[in-house]
């Protein structure tokens, strides 16, 4: 999903912006943010960067 690519770019220091055409996709993006980005903090023991 586009949100996953944006999260990866953000971790590498890029400023990523995504656009969602429909509000229904926001829940899928939120799921990706919670499952990937938020858990990275706890896996690494600190903020990634």
What would you say this structure looks like, in words?
It is a single chain. This protein is mainly alpha-helical. The chain has one domain. Helices cover about 60% and strands about 0% of the residues. The chain contains two helices and no strands. It has helices at about 1-10, 25-45. α1 (about 1-10) runs parallel beside α2. It starts with a helix and ends in a 5-residue tail after the last helix. The model has no long low-confidence stretch (mean pLDDT about 80).
Mean pLDDT across all amino acids: 80
Number of helices: 2
* DSSP strand content: under 5%
Structural class: mainly alpha
| Overall body shape | flat
Order of helices and strands: HH
Largest sheet: none
Portion of residues within helices:
55-70%
The radius of gyration over CA amounts to: 11 Å
- Taking pLDDT < 50 over at least 5 consecutive residues as the criterion, the unreliable ranges are none
Q: How many E strands?
A: 0
Calculate the terminal CA-CA distance, rounded to whole Å: 22 Å
Number of domains: 1
């Amino acid at each position: 999903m586009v949100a996953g690519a944006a999260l990866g770019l953000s971790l590498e220091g890029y400023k990523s912006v995504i656009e969602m055409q429909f509000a229904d996709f926001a829940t899928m993006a939120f799921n990706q943010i919670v499952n990937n980005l938020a858990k990275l903090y706890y896996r690494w023991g600190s903020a990634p960067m």
